[in-house]
Structure formats: structure tokens, C-alpha cells
Design brief:
The complex is a heterodimer of chains A (about 270) and B (about 270).
Chain A lengths: L1 H19 L1 H26 L4 E2 L2 E2 H18 L5 H10 L2 H6 L4 H31 L8 H26 L9 H14 L11 H8 L8 H8 L5 H35 L2
Antiparallel strand pairs in A: 1-2
Helix pairs in contact in A: 1-6, 2-3, 3-6, 3-10, 7-10, 7-11
Chain B lengths: L1 H20 L3 H29 L1 E2 L2 E2 H22 L5 H7 L12 H6 L8 H17 L6 H32 L3 H14 L9 H9 L8 H7 L15 H21 L7
Antiparallel strand pairs in B: 1-2
Classes of the chains: A mainly alpha (about 270), B mainly alpha (about 270).
Pfam family, one (chain B): ABC2_membrane_6
InterPro entries (chain B): ABC-2_transporter-like
Keywords (chain B): Membrane, Transmembrane, Transmembrane helix
Chain lengths: ~270, ~270
């Protein structure tokens, strides 16, 4: 219990720290909006005036993109990966290793703080306005909202664990260039962040459902617009939980190996 | 001839930079592979997107690839010449910018020749492969005139995007911030132009034609070469791309020099 109080302190500090760098918050919101404009326009043009495509109405598809952009705002609000990689490269990470906390958990809790600040001051006001002025679908039952929030939270955890585990590879490889680009591409496409899985070619969809990425955007988005409904919701959240646990252990494994490596090198 | 002297000096300065980068050959190849995979990723996303829908605002997959490749090719040159302009703020804050002022050459030129990023070979390889592939897949009807026009519009695209980088860097003279403006404004805006502008709201199209002339980088020229319609704009508008680039770059250069004249060292 005492331990968690310590981690919450990081959350609180990160929240306050974000409040100081308000320019960052606003600028991030600006670029989030431009990408929303881009994907909104792309899907409007793809539907080209049709009421529905592949059994999904235009309104639902547009909602999917808006929700996805909202979630990607959340997922991008934490400590950027390059900042941690830079600490590895300069050896500053050694100081963190000496302190009595688990470093990946410490960054996760700090992210909760900066994400909370970003949601409250920037994302939520903007997206509430968007939902008022655009023709979008909103879940009718409060239970769907609960499922959506749970799924979005799970998605955040999956993304955090995978991204961090991946970022820690820089402990082993000096240059992660090419692999990193493949990783980010896979994450953006296979998570369904910009194209929902049901529009994929069948073979690609089959691959995507067996990967953890779909839990980040596709599952919460699809729950929100009602494409995943009924008993399927709990099943999908179950899949997410499986991936949260699996990715968490992956992160722990990579972290243990990586910190060991630092000790060997002497930082 | 001062211009010849500057050209000679430019090659001397950059060849030193190139030799330095080739010392890290593994890093160099990894970065090129990284760039090519990142761009291929965008191309694959386009393919998946059009798998069920066939076309986006009357543009087919291969036409979109062509549009994308023009943007990447001019961006590759832009990275070589101007990409480091975005981090002028770091130089000003650290006080290292002053060394560009104490030498007997134009500071703009000196700053420009300071870096030469060889990883932009990634952009060249990617875009040239795409040009070849697309030429086999769709009938572009290449003529000598079209090839010439492609080159001219690439130069236009370099000048427009370079001008924008110069403008962003000039902001550092007034606000001591520039890098951030790149990531907030220009990076997402460049992403917008990977897709045909016709899909965006009219005001955005108008903005990218006449305010920040991104439309002249790839959309208007590609429409001319592929003989596609550009709704709301006359079909010949693409031919103005080199001229627009030249004018835009001159304005950007002028603003940069204006900023320079009121620059005061931070003294640190």
C-alpha cells in the first residue's frame, strides 16, 4: 500500500508539471486536430456520399475515427519514448536504477498524471464540442460507456507496455532505426487506429486479430460505435486483459534483462 | 563571380559532412532502411484503405502513390538543404549561432551548408522505385515535356517546403522557438498533402493553394502529369509550381534576413 502512495506521488507531480508546460499541451492539441481533419476527410471521401459501406453506416464510421483520434491523443500524451532512450544513451538512466522504485511502473504512473491533465484541459473540452456539432453516434446505454472506458484503459496499458518494451531494445542495439519504423507502422495499421479491421483484406484481418495491437484502438472504438456488442464485448475485453498481462510480463522480462545489461556496462 | 565561389564552398563544406557520416556506416544503412520502411508503411496503409473502396476522391491507388512519391522526392532534397533550419532555436539558446555571424560569408548560406544529411538517399531510392513501378502500372504517357515539368515542379516543391522551414526557423529570432513549430504545424501539414487535396474542405484547399502553398508541392503538379481534374482550380494551375516556389522562398529568405538583423545574442 505504501508503495502505491509513492507511485501516486509521480502521478501528482507529472500532473503539475504539465500545467507548467501549457504551450506543449496546446500545440499537441493543434496537431491532433489536423490529423482528425485528415482522417475525417479521407473517410468522407471514401464513403463518397454512400449511407453505408460493408454494413457500417457513415455516421458510425466517422464516430470511429473521432473516437480513435481522441484515444491517440491520450496515448501520445505521456513521456515520449525518445526521452527515455536518450537517458539510456547518456547513461542518466543509472540514477533511476539506483532509486527504490520500479522504473517502468514509475513512468506509467507519471504518464497517468500528464494524461489526466491533457484530457481535462484540452481533449475533453474539444471533443465534447465536436460531439455536439457533428453528426456522430453516442452510446445509448450507460453500460456501453463503462465498457468503453474500461477498454480504452486496457488499450492504454497494452500500448504502454509494448512501446516501452520496444523502446528498451535500445539498451541492446545502439541503432534501432529500421526496426523502430516497422514497429510503429505495424502499431498504426494493425491497431485499427485509422482503418477499422473489418475493411482489411481477409488475410490481414486474420493476422490482426491474433496480435495485441487491436486492443489499443480497434476494440474500444468498435465498442463505442456498437460494432462490438452483447456478449462479444466481454469477450473482447477478456482478450485485452490477456494482452495486458502478456505485455506486462514481456516488459518486465525486457526490463530485467536491460537493467542487467546496464550493470554490466557500468551505465 | 561570388555565386561560383559559394557553390565551390558549399561542396567543400558538405563533403566534410558526408565523410563524417560515412564513419558510422551501420547507423547510416539502418537509417536508410528505416526511412524506406516508414514510407512503405504509408503506401501499404493507402493500399489497405483502397482495398474495399478502390478510389479516394477519384484518385486510384497508383495515382496516389505517384502523388506521394513527388512529395517524398522533393522532401528528400529539402532535408539535405534545409531540414536543420528547424533547430535554429537550439543554436540561439546555446549561443552557438554567433559563430555563423563572425565569418566573411552570408550567414544564411553558412547555416545552410552546415549540414548535409546523407540519409535522404532513403527518400531518393523510395521515390524513384515508386515512379518506375507506377509508370508500369498505369499509362502516364511520359513525354519529354512531362519529364521536364516533373523536374521543374520538384524544384518548386523543394523551394516551397524549404521556404516553409526557413520561415519556421525565422520564428526563432523573435520567439526563441522553432523546432516545436515544425512538429506542430509543418509535420501534420505535410501528412495532409500525402493525400489528394480534393478530399479536404474547400477552405483547407484554398489555404494550401494561396496561403501556405503546399498544394503546389505535389497535388497540382501530379494533376497536370496524370491529367486529372482539380475541382475549384483551373487545370493549368500546376504549371505555376516553380514560380510559386521561387516567390515563396524569396519571401521566406527576406523574413529570415529581417529576423537576423534584429537578432541579439543570448550571450550565454
Amino acid at each position: 500500500m505504501h508503495q502505491y502512495r509513492m507511485y501516486w506521488a509521480f502521478t501528482r507531480k507529472a500532473f503539475l508539471r504539465s500545467a507548467v508546460y501549457r504551450f506543449d499541451v496546446w500545440s499537441r492539441l493543434g496537431s491532433n486536430l489536423i490529423f482528425l481533419l485528415m482522417w475525417g476527410s479521407i473517410w468522407t471521401a471514401l464513403y463518397a456520399g454512400r449511407e453505408e459501406a460493408g454494413g457500417v453506416s457513415f455516421e458510425a464510421m466517422l464516430t470511429y475515427i473521432v473516437v480513435s483520434q481522441f484515444l491517440s491523443g491520450i496515448n501520445g500524451a505521456g513521456t515520449p519514448l525518445w526521452e527515455i532512450q536518450e537517458k539510456v544513451r547518456t547513461g542518466d538512466i543509472a540514477i533511476e536504477l539506483m532509486r527504490p522504485f520500479n522504473v517502468p511502473l514509475r513512468y506509467l504512473f507519471a504518464d497517468f498524471g500528464s494524461v489526466a491533465f491533457y484530457i481535462i484541459t484540452a481533449l475533453l473540452p474539444l471533443y465534447i464540442v465536436l460531439f455536439i456539432f457533428m453528426d456522430l453516434t453516442v452510446p445509448a446505454s450507460w453500460l456501453t460507456w463503462v465498457y468503453f472506458i474500461a477498454a480504452a484503459f486496457n488499450g492504454f496499458l497494452i500500448r504502454y507496455c509494448i512501446e516501452m518494451a520496444f523502446g528498451l531494445l535500445s539498451f541492446f542495439l545502439v541503432e534501432t532505426g529500421g526496426i523502430e519504423d516497422i514497429f510503429y507502422f505495424a502499431m498504426s495499421l494493425l491497431s485499427g487506429s485509422v482503418i477499422p479491421l473489418w475493411f482489411f483484406p481477409d488475410w490481414l484481418e486474420k493476422i490482426a486479430v491474433y496480435l495485441p495491437f487491436q486492443g489499443i484502438y480497434y476494440i474500444p472504438n468498435a465498442i463505442f460505435i456498437g460494432e462490438i456488442f452483447g456478449g462479444e464485448i466481454l469477450f473482447s475485453i477478456g482478450i485485452q486483459l490477456f494482452w495486458v498481462i502478456a505485455c506486462f510480463f514481456l516488459l518486465r522480462f525486457v526490463w530485467n534483462r536491460a537493467s542487467h545489461k546496464v550493470i554490466v556496462q557500468g551505465g | 563571380m561570388p555565386i561560383l565561389k559559394y557553390v565551390d564552398l558549399y561542396f567543400k563544406l558538405v563533403s566534410a559532412g558526408i565523410r563524417a557520416q560515412f564513419q558510422y556506416r551501420f547507423a547510416f544503412f539502418m537509417r536508410i532502411i528505416g526511412l524506406i520502411t516508414a514510407y512503405s508503411g504509408t503506401a501499404i496503409t493507402m493500399w489497405v484503405m483502397l482495398y474495399r473502396f478502390q478510389e479516394l476522391g477519384s484518385w486510384s491507388f497508383f495515382e496516389m502513390l505517384f502523388l506521394f512519391a513527388i512529395a517524398i522526392l522533393s522532401w528528400g532534397f529539402c532535408i539535405i538543404l534545409f531540414f536543420h533550419f528547424r533547430s535554429l532555436d537550439t543554436y540561439i539558446i546555446n549561443g552557438t549561432f554567433d559563430r555563423f555571424l563572425v565569418r566573411p560569408i552570408n550567414p544564411f548560406f553558412h547555416f545552410m551548408a552546415m549540414r548535409f544529411d546523407v540519409a535522404s538517399f532513403g527518400q531518393f531510392i523510395f521515390s524513384i522505385l515508386i515512379f518506375i513501378w507506377v509508370s508500369f502500372e498505369i499509362n502516364i504517357g511520359w513525354t519529354f515535356g512531362k519529364v521536364l515539368f516533373l523536374f521543374a515542379s520538384i524544384i518548386g516543391g523543394i523551394l516551397i517546403q524549404g521556404g516553409l522551414l526557413v520561415l519556421i526557423s525565422a520564428l526563432a529570432f523573435w520567439t526563441t522557438k522553432s523546432e516545436q513549430f515544425y512538429w506542430v504545424a509543418m509535420y501534420p501539414a505535410r501528412n495532409l498533402t500525402n493525400y489528394p487535396l480534393v478530399i479536404y474542405p474547400k477552405i483547407v484547399q484554398w489555404f494550401t493553394a494561396f496561403v501556405v502553398p503546399f498544394g503546389f508541392v505535389n497535388y497540382f503538379p501530379a494533376a497536370v502529369i496524370l491529367e486529372k481534374e482539380t475541382p475549384f482550380f483551373p487545370a493549368y494551375i500546376g504549371y505555376f509550381s516553380p514560380l510559386v516556389g521561387l516567390v515563396f522562398f524569396m519571401i521566406a529568405y527576406w523574413i529570415w534576413m529581417l529576423g537576423l538583423s534584429r537578432y541579439k545574442s543570448t550571450g550565454s
